[in-house]
Amino acid sequence: MTEPHARQSSALVPDMLALPRKTPDALPSLIGMTRARLRDALIETGVPEKQAKMRVGQIWAWLYQRGVQDFGTMSNLSKDLRATLAAHFRIGRPEIIERQLSKDGTRKYLLQIEGGHEVEAVYIPEEDRGTLCISSQVGCTLTCSFCHTGTQTLVRNLTASEIIGQIMVCRDDLGEWPEEGGNPGTGKRLLSNIVLMGMGEPLYNFDAVRDAMKIAMDGEGISLSRRRITLSTSGVVPLIARAGEEIGTMLAISLHGTTDEIRDKLVPINKKWNVETLMQACRAYPKLSNAERITFEYVMLDGVNDSDADAKRLVKLIEGMPAKINLIPFNPWPGAPYQRSSWERIEAFAEIVNRAGYASPVRTPRGQDIMAACGQLKSATERARKARPSEIN
Ligand code: SAH
Ligand code: SF4
Questions:
Q1: Tell me, what's the pLDDT at 379?
Q2: Does the Cβ of 150 fall within 6 Å of ligand 2?
Q3: Which of 107, 136, 215, 336 has a CB 3.0–4.6 Å from the CB of 202, allowing a cystine?
């Protein structure tokens, strides 16, 4: 990525005014900048080094606790500083192209990001929480055979700004920012949980996901406990330990198969890192305990991975590991080569896992009327080319 500030302030370019002025859209967004990056950027625009840390805290509070989108509102900063900020930065948000509201309250956002690309994020309200499912890439390099996103090739990684931007846009839409002068820290949070289970493989966009999640977990940032954030991976084994050390969120593994033979077909990354290697990485995940269990996601595909023998093998695989199994009834998409297992089958499978002492909630498909369920996301531009009209609603 280019770093315009570093260049502008370099000793080789002393006359900042001589530089061509950037259009507002081309300015770097403050959203998604790490504390360190923002501090450096402020110093480069002339903020005294001694003040920079405090300014970062003040700016973050405006951005992430109050949701302001205008530098003029940042009333505890001097007029001069506000003008400097406006000249060098923008407060970027992805643009909502379309918002669909399901009968069950689920909201699906189609968002446009730089370059005209589109990503989706889904907000799922429940009694005790509100979960936002966010994307980390446009498309995916992997080709899991039951996943709609997997039929779309990778277009590009999202930036940290675009990852955090999904949270900002959703909080805007929920009207979750405090009133002017109100206290940001009070009341029940509508957006209380985040799952990295939208489009893309988060560990293949490691740095941006890490930077974004640090902001999500920071008490002066979005301020969500790390236990309310779950990163789901298809099994990029060499990066699992690093995710534990550098990101530290809860972990979910897209297991879906209990033998290499089955998993090779469903989650082809298994050919690189097989079930045994994956299990070793899971057992070594830091802070693993009964309070912080790994979630194994298991999509229920009729006649493919849903037999009693599969359930027994699954229990054996995770033996002794603090874990829960999330059974996901397959969510169909046009042209998908699988069928969802019957409810009786799913219940029988869950029973075996439960009897072995593991919680195995069946994930109720949400937002089905708007194709918002797990694995149904795919950029609309891509989809519109092939879609049947009923798919878009
Ligand atoms: N790439 C990451 C995160 C995104 S997918 C991963 O694979 O883990 C989030 C979850 O939805 C994964 O467990 C994925 O396997 C599952 N999923 C994908 N397509 C699905 C479908 N059609 N029905 C149900 N679950 C699906
Ligand atoms: Fe990519 Fe995850 Fe879909 Fe596999 S399940 S194709 S890793 S988004």
A1: 52
A2: yes
A3: 136
The answer on 119 and 49 residing in a single domain is no
Please say which residue of 21, 56, 88 terminates a domain: 88
Whether residue 43 sits in one domain with residue 123: no
Within this chain, do residues 77 and 213 fall inside the same structural domain, yes or no?
Answer: no
Catalytic residue among 120, 162, 201, 297: 120
Phi, psi of 371 (to 5 degrees): 50, 45
Backbone angles phi, psi at 140, to 5 degrees: -160, 145
Mean pLDDT of 24-45: 93
What is the per-residue pLDDT across 110-137, written as a single tens digit (0 to 9) for each? 999 999 999 999 999 999 999 999 999 9
Q: Is the pLDDT of residue 15 over 80?
A: no
Question: How many domains does the chain contain in total?
Answer: 2
Do 188 and 103 fall within a single domain? yes
Alpha carbon nearest to ligand 1 atom 9, residue: 197
Average pLDDT, the chain: 88
User: What is the rounded average pLDDT of the residues 145-164?
Assistant: 92
Residues 106 and 255 placed together within one structural domain of the fold: yes
Report the C-alpha gap between 342 and 276 in whole angstroms.
29
Beta-carbon contacts of 318 under 8 Å, excluding residues fewer than 6 positions away, are 279, 296, 325, 358
- Domain of residue 9, residue span: 2-88
Q: Are residues 316 and 372 in the same domain?
A: yes
What does the DSSP assignment read for 320-381? TS-EEEEEEE----TT-S--BPPHHHHHHHHHHHHHTT----B-----GGGT-STT----HH
CATH number where 237 lies: 3.20.20.70
The answer to whether the CB of 328 is under 6 A from ligand 1 is: yes
pTM over 0.85: yes
Is the model's pLDDT at 11 over the cut of 60? no
Question: Nearest C-alpha to atom 8 of ligand 2 is from which residue?
Answer: 200
